[in-house]
Amino acid sequence: MKFSVRMKITLMVVIFTTFIVATSWIVCNYVIERVFLNNLKANLVTTYNSCNKLFNESSDDYVEFDDLYGKIKNPAGAIVLIIDVENNKIYFTSINDNGRMMESLNRIINSVIEKDEGRFLDNSEYIIQRNHDDTINSDYYDLVGKLDNGFSVIIRSPISEVETFVRTVKKVFNYVAAVLIVFCAVFVLFISNIFSNPIKKLSHSARRMANLDFDSKVKVYAKDEIGELGECMNELSSKLENTISQLKTANLELEKDIEEKRKIDDMRKEFLSHVSHELKTPIALIQGYAEGLKDNLFDDKENMEYYSDVIVDEAHKMNQLVQKLLTLNEIELGNFNIKIERFDLAELIKGVLNSTRILINEEYVKIEFEEESPVWVWADEFMIEEAFTNYLTNAIHYVIDGGIIRIFFKRIDNNIRLCVYNQGNNIDDEDLDKLFIKFYKTDKSRSREYGGNGIGLSIVAAIMEAHGKKYGVYNVDDGVVFYFDLDTNMPC
Fold first, then answer.
1. Residue 197 to residue 216: CA distance in whole angstroms
2. C-alpha distances in angstroms, 389 versus 396, 416, 468?
């Protein structure tokens, strides 16, 4: 069974209080009465000694009767009777009644004489006994003794007053004890709340900390040990929050490093797989045609030149593949330093079109370019030329026979968007998001015909990501549009 701190404190205090009250009750019922009775006997002895002293200090055998009043020490207010036994005369009495009380006192004297077998007590001797007076139906303590001068003395004190007082004390004590226990229980419950409530708050805050919730803070009001504990918990919460935050940051960085390593490993595996696939065909062709030339399969010059042209063409494609892979690798690894400068984009496009005029003429393609010179942009001119060239080459090889390639600009806020449209078939929606993936080809047979290897568009993607600009592709009614954005203002 679970007990709260509040309940434990209450039980401990109530048990302790009950023990004290029970002990006091035992003392009250079994000790106090004896103490009062013993005190009563002591008072009787005091009165006896006072009487004896008065007679000893007097030079006369008889002390004046009136001299005894006010001189006898009588703290219990007892009845005093001094008798001259030899002369059978009452020497002193503190009562005026010579009736039933005197008869009772005489019986006591006679009783003592009878018990002493005819010999009364010697001088300076006394006995104290409890007697019941049937005449008045009451109990007394009686001191019967002899003074030094030979007089007999009887000192009587009623017990009923002491017993009545003791009974009253017991009754009052029982009521007070019951009230005290109830009051103590209620008071302790109230006091225990003062101590248990801060502990409950500390426990609640600790539970939230255990659940990694560090927003909970303990409000500290007291300047005691509990307040100090609350301050320590608040400090612990702040330090744990900072530590866990640092651990999370370190963990995120570690996850990024692991993810980056995994990506690099995947890229390496993918690279090896694609490169081996791309090089397999040209190497096989070069090997086959080279072996044919070596074995002199053809004697005529025309076939020999054809074999040689195939070998040169395949070697050229392999060289282009390697160069593009090297360029892409440098850009992706960040080893290619970007040089941001201001240049005329329209002039750059004109230059690329002039350099590819022969290829354009061979394909019987119509180029449409609305000159908007100058169109100033901020970027790495060499890399942008590479990106545009890849777009243009891709458009030339995929445009329909006798189709149109249109180059145009769109202004979007502080950017200018370069668009390259080629008339032809649309690209499947499922392929649109994959075109810029390295080595991805939508039509492998056509790619092979013009030497495509799926790297050109991935180079465009790497270049634009290095610039932090948008790029992409979308279908139109009668063709496809590739685009990328460039800054018209100096980038921050």
1. 16
2. 10, 18, 19
> What whole-number distance in Å separates Cα of residue 65 and Cα of residue 325?
145
473's CB contacts (< 8 A; 6+ apart) are: 427, 432, 435, 480, 481, 482, 483
Give the torsion sign (CA, 243, 245, 251, 256): negative
State the 10-residue block means of pLDDT for the chain, 492 residues long: 62 77 74 80 88 73 56 81 74 66 65 51 78 77 84 84 77 78 77 71 73 68 68 75 81 87 73 60 71 69 74 71 66 69 91 81 82 84 88 89 90 90 89 78 50 71 88 92 88 60
65 in Cβ contact with 54 (< 8 Å): no
Residue closest to 52 by CA, chosen among 132, 142, 149:
149
Asked if 143 and 128 count as a contact pair (C-beta separation under 8 A), the reply is yes
Token pair recorded at residue 379: 């970027």
Q: Are 481 and 474 in contact (CB under 8 A)?
A: yes
Whole-prediction pTM value? 0.42
CA 426 to chain centre: 59
The set of residues, in sequence order, having a beta carbon less than 8 Å from that of 406 and lying 6+ positions away, is 368, 369, 419, 420, 421
Distance separating alpha carbons of residues 463 and 120, to the nearest angstrom: 140
Phi, psi torsion values for 29, nearest 5 degrees = -85, -30
Spatial CB neighbours of 242, under 8 Å, sequence gap ≥ 6:
none
The b/e string for 65-91 (b: 16+ C-beta within 10 A; e otherwise) is eeebeeebebebebbbbbbbeeeeeeb
